[in-house]
Amino acid sequence: MLHTLMKSPFETNISLIISMLKKSDDFLALQDGVLIALKGNIFLNSIITCPVKLYLIKEDVYARGIHKKISSEFILISYTHFVSLTLKHKKQMTW
């Protein structure tokens, strides 16, 4: 399953998301969801210990000026790669 976080992690039940993540899943943050990757935030340790690949939309990271402040555990991708993830995962959950 592809889990996409579009809202700020401060407006979302991150504990619920983390409890649903499985090894075969991918996690993608876009729009204000990219804030989850900020170094030092309260959600970072919980999400990076999950057994999933963690992705961020590069354009959203740069639009918010946080590219130098994000965890190296996240992979920056383009919207084209986002489309590839949606094709890979038949099931998707948007948060």
As for the number of domains, it is 1
What proportion of the residues form beta strands (DSSP E)?
15-25%
Shape call = globular
Q: Order of strands side by side in the largest beta sheet?
A: 4-3-2-1-5
CATH fold-type name: Hypothetical Protein Ychn, Chain: A
User: What kind of oligomer do you see?
Assistant: single chain
Q: What's the β-strand tally?
A: 5
Text of the CATH class: Alpha Beta
- Structural class computed from helices and strand pairing: alpha/beta
Main sheet characteristics: 5 strands, parallel
User: How would you state the average pLDDT, rounded?
Assistant: 97
Looking at the overall shape, the CATH architecture is: 3-Layer(aba) Sandwich
Your description of this structure?
By secondary structure, the protein is α/β, with parallel strands linked by helices. The chain has a single domain (2-94), classed as DsrEFH-like (Hypothetical Protein Ychn, Chain: A). It has helices at 14-20, 44-48, 58-63, 79-88; strands at residues 2-5, 26-29, 53-57, 75-77, 92-94. It is globular, with a radius of gyration of 12 Å. The chain starts with a strand and ends with a strand. The relative contact order is 0.26.
Task: List key phrases describing it.
95 residues, alpha/beta, Hypothetical Protein Ychn, Chain: A, five-stranded parallel sheet
